[in-house]
Amino acid sequence: MVILMAEKDDKSKKSMIAPFEAVGVIAAQSIGEPGTQMTMRTFHYAGVAEHVPTGLPRLIELVDAKKAPKKPIIDIHLKSAYRSESEAEKVARDISSIFVRDIAKVEDDLAERTISITYSEKDGKALNVSFAALRKAIEEYSPNLKIIESKIILNPTREKKKSEEKPKEITSKYVRKLANKIKSSIVKGVAGVNRAVVVRGEGEHFIRAAGSNIVGVVTHEAVDPKRVYTNNIKEIERVYGIEAARNAIIKEINDVMELQKLYVDVRHIMLVADAMTFDGVVKSIGRHGLSGQKVGVLGRAAFEETVKHLIEASAFAEDENLIGVTENIIVGQTVPVGTGKIRLTIKAKRKAKTKES
């Protein structure tokens, strides 16, 4: 038992990082080297008719902290009563966004200044949307509706603003603009969630859809609010907070690496995620984020927009204390990492005085 404990203790000591180690440089090398080997392949999510960026494009998207990914995906896990395939398909139909253009033909008559919406019974039945639901969606644009069988004729109106003496004239441009707006109006489903499909998971069925809207999705009674996940980091930050966003960054970068069969120690990825989120908000690694907000003037200037940083520093009389690696390399000093961080002071012993002296 003593031997086993000694072995365990020895392994734990070996796994510890050395004092003043340049962990940032090591993490950059560990992620950057396999990152250069990545291919530009795209991976097709099962059932979702969208190519989701992977490899280098996705890694760039993550470290740049984009407001929204190019192709957002949301995974929706259901409560135990709805995990069968048939029940999951019903929920998927309820959640998927259905627009006016999917079930009706929208035409504008610029001469008469009217818009006609013709309901397609075939498409309506296929998507389980009634004519009454279509009418309700269109009523918000104008109360002046004329219904002829499965056709709705809308006469656009404009509300008078406080600053106006009378409402503006209904122009052809306004009619065309309104017609396009009506086409994109949601009749049924959750805004921002499209083409939801049922996917077979580990012992259960769940829903995967294009787009993302966590707040809208969790309002459905069948959805398990604790198990909704999206690849949109900014939305996770907004809804669940900065800790959840940090975990999502780690997961997404790890998934990108594993998909390309490149295995990086998770601690390097954790360091990147910590650097991006330590300030309470998700920041990019670049001139608009971490690199552009370094304490040292020379550190900021060495990355990008050199002249801009030097002019700003001179205008505000900023000090350069040479605390970073880059700054010390520029001035030719020992960098303050590893052994360069250690200062030794030698106190020489005085020689004993002889009688002659």
Question: What do these coordinates show?
Answer:
By secondary structure, the protein is an alpha+beta fold. The chain folds into four domains: 88 residues, no CATH class; 64 residues; 91 residues, 2-Layer Sandwich (Gyrase A, domain 2); 51 residues, DNA polymerase, domain 1 (Orthogonal Bundle). 40% of the residues lie in helices and 16% in strands. It is built from 15 helices and twelve strands. The strands form four sheets. A four-stranded antiparallel beta sheet has the order 10-11-3-12. A hairpin with a 2-residue loop joins strand 7 and strand 8. The longest helix is centred in the last third of the chain and has 18 residues. The radius of gyration is 31 Å and the shape is elongated. The N and C termini lie far apart (65 Å). The mean pLDDT is 83.
Give the gist of this structure:
With 357 residues, the chain is an alpha+beta fold.
Structural topology:
Layout: H1 2-15, H2 23-35, E1 43-44, E2 51-52, H3 55-63, E3 73-78, H4 85-95, E4 98-99, H5 100-103, E5 104-109, E6 114-119, H6 121-126, H7 131-139, E7 145-148, E8 151-154, H8 172-183, E9 186-188, E10 193-200, E11 205-211, H9 214-217, E12 223-230, H10 233-240, H11 242-259, H12 266-277, H13 297-303, H14 306-315, H15 325-331
Antiparallel strand pairs: 1-2, 3-11, 3-12, 4-9, 5-6, 6-8, 7-8, 10-11
